[in-house]
Amino acid sequence: MNRYDDIINLPHHISPTRKQMSMHDRAAQFAPFAALVGYDDAVAETARLTELRPELDEQEQRIINERLAFIADHIHEHPEVRIKYFVPDDRKSGGAIVVTSGKVKKISATNGTIVMADGCIIPIADVMDIVI
Question: How many structural domains is the chain composed of?
Answer without folding.
Answer: 1
